[in-house]
Amino acid sequence: MDKKRRKAAIKRVTRETAIGLRVDFDRPGTESRIRCQVPFLGHMLELMSAHGGFALDVRARGDVTVDDHHTTEDLGICLGTAVSQALADRKGIRRYGSATVPMDEALVLVALDLSGRAHLSYGLKVGGRRIKDFDTGLVEEFLLGFVRNVPCTLHLVQLAGRNDHHVIEAAFKAFGRALGAAVERDDRFRGVPSTKGRL
Q: For a disulfide at 180, which of 3, 53, 144, 156, Cβ 3.0-4.6 Å?
């Protein structure tokens, strides 16, 4: 199996946002550094990388005086693109990952397949409300940006929860753990983990 470092750096600059993002699957998540003008999302990305066991460096600015939508969506796009580039041909990875994470009364299951097919099944019941200044409906926009740019299949199922913060935090922790598991090296696979020979 190829043991080269699995990392990628992305820059995305538009009239609405300026984002620099690096992902490194062979560096621990405790080394992540997140600087984001959307504080709640920045905190979620920090939790995701820490619990996923991979490093994430983010510097994100956007037109947050309008709202957080563009910055949140573009961060999802950049993360998905970086993951895709870091994994290159996908040889030697587990491909599948899942995690169920509790956060007090909340319980969220996340299942991920680095399939090469974009699909999001979003089962969180938090849309349309706010946590401080953050519109909770933007979590789905972030994940859509991610899924479309890896591409991958991603399922989130809310098994319990009343507090939106707890539900979303459990979801990001579970997402990180599922992604960390899916990208793990697996010596049982010499090539791509698919009977088709490619993902």
A: 53
